[in-house]
Amino acid sequence: MILINPKFLPRKPGIYLVGGTVRDRMLGRPTADYDLAVTGDPAGVAESIAAAAGRRVVVMGRPGQCVYRIVAGAETYDVSAIQGKDITADLLRRDFTINAMGLHVKTEEIIDPACGRKDLADRLVRMVAPGVFDADPLRLLRAFRMAAVLEFSVERRTLAAIVRRPQKIAGIAGERIREEWRKLLETPDSTELLWQMHQSGLLESLIPELGELRGCTQNPHHRADAFEHTMQVCQGLEQMLHQNAPTLSPDRENRDLPADPENLSLIKHAALIHDLGKPRCKTADEHGGIHFYGHETEGAEMAREINRRMRFSNADNKYVVFLVKNHLRPLFLYLLHQQAKLRPETVSRFFMKTAPWTPDLLLLAAADMAGKKESGDSGFTEFARTLLAGYANEHLPAARRSPLITGRDLIDEFGLSPSPQFARILRQVEEKRLAGSLENREQALAFVKKEIEKPRE
Q: Please, which residues bridge with residue 33 across strands?
C-alpha cells in the first residue's frame, strides 16, 4: 500500500506523515492533503518540499507553534514540529485513535501507539483518552462528524465520555462548530447521528431550542410530538436527497433540483429547526383543538439567532430563514387545490415569491408532509411534482421574457405616480402574465384601466 506521494517529500529520518492523511490512505480514500510532523528543522523540510514543487512556503500560526504550508497544484503540504519528546508522544496528543497514526517517510514504518489500525478495521471512532474532549470540546461534535463521514460508529466508552460533558460545546467558537456541523449534514445518513447526539445530550447543547420540542404534543394530523416529527422530517428529507425516493422530477434526481449543490446541508439544517416556533406559539381553542398560528414566523427569528451563533454567512442565513419562514406555503396551496379553489394567479404569485428557491422549498415541504400522520397519502407528493413541473417548464421560461408593461407605461398612459398602488398594479400584471391570463400589452393596459376605475372602498 502506497501511503505517500514521493514526488516532493524528502526521504530523510525524522519526517512523519501523520493524522488523517494516514487514516484516509489506509481506508483507500483519496486525499490531497499531507500533514507532516518533523523532528529537528520543520522550516528546512518545508523549504525542501517547496523547492521540489517550485512553490513557496506560507508560515501560519504563532511562534513556537508554526505550521509551514506549501500548496502545489491540488496538493497541500502542512509541516510542523513534533509536539512532545518524540513521535509517539505527538500522536498520543491527538483526538481519536484512527487519527493517531504516523508513517515514517524514509522507512515507511507505521507508528500506531493507540491501536488505530484495529479501530479502522472495526470501523470505530474511539477517543485516545477521555481528556481529549476537555483539551478541545469541539471534538465532542467531531466524533459524530467523523462517524458520519466514514460510516463508522462512535465507540461505547467514547459515547459515555461525551455524555458526561456535552455542555462544554457551548464554549466553542461558532465558526469551528459550523464547519463540523455542515460536514456532518452533508452525509447521507446524518439523521442517525443526530439521534445519537440527542441521546448523548450534545444536540440540545449545540441547539438548546430543540429541547423545547420534546413533549410538545400536536394536533391529530401528527403521529408524534414536535421533536420526533422533526427527526422524521430530517429522515424523510435525507431519503429524498440521497435515495431519490419519492422523486419530484421525472428527469432529474432530487439532489440536483436546488440551484446550488452546496445548499444540501443547509436544507437539512432548515429541516431540523423548521418547527422551533411551535412550542412558543402553541394555543388550544374551546374545543381542545391545538394550533400553532404564526410558528413559521417565530421559527424564522429563532433560526436567525441559531445561524448567528454558528456564524453562518449572510447568504446562508438568508436561505435558511427563507425556508423556515415559508415552509407552510406549499401546504396552503395544496389545501386550496383540494378544495378546487387554486387559481393560476395564486400559483404564479407563489413562484414569484419563492424563486429561485422554489425546488428547495418543495423538497422540505414534501418531507414535512411525509413526517405527519398522513404519510401514506401520496396526494401532496403528486401535487409537489405538478408544481415543480409548472415552475421549471412554464414559470422560468416566462419569467425570462420581458414584462408586458413597465412603470413608464403607467406614468405615460394613465398619469400615475410611483406609490403602493403603482407597485401593486405592476405586480398584478406580472402575476397574470406568468399565469397566462394576460398575453399582450393591449390586454395588460385594459386590465390596468379597469383596476384604476374600480371604486375605492
A: 76
